[in-house]
Amino acid sequence: MEQIKVVDALAALAQETRLNIFRLLVQTGPEGLPAGQIAEKLALPATTLSFHLTQLRQAGLIDYRRESRSLIYAAEYDAMNGLISYLTENCCQGDASACGPVAAKAREPAVTMDKKRSSR
Description:
Layout: H1 3-13, H2 16-28, E1 33-34, H3 35-42, H4 46-58, E2 62-67, E3 70-75, H5 77-88, H6 101-106, H7 113-118
Antiparallel strand pairs: 1-3, 2-3
Helix pairs in contact: 2-4
């Protein structure tokens, strides 16, 4: 993953509302949630939610699909795993197993944000 994409993703997550949205979508799973349900669960006005969803989408951390008249948002797990992998790449002097299961899991091959965006 390119460093600039890492910076974009971290910048997007460095805001409380966006972090809450992203965590909710990660917890929800790949099926995602309609925008209205996200707004309801997090008590956000529609315009505020729209702004933050756009920021997360531009950072490559979420995507959406249209189902009838609804937009369903879901976390981009490949992007999340790519970010974790980048952050733990040199963990514990290259011995990720010494850093625990999260770092070791992050070192497993994953589709990166670069590959995901180029396939669109």
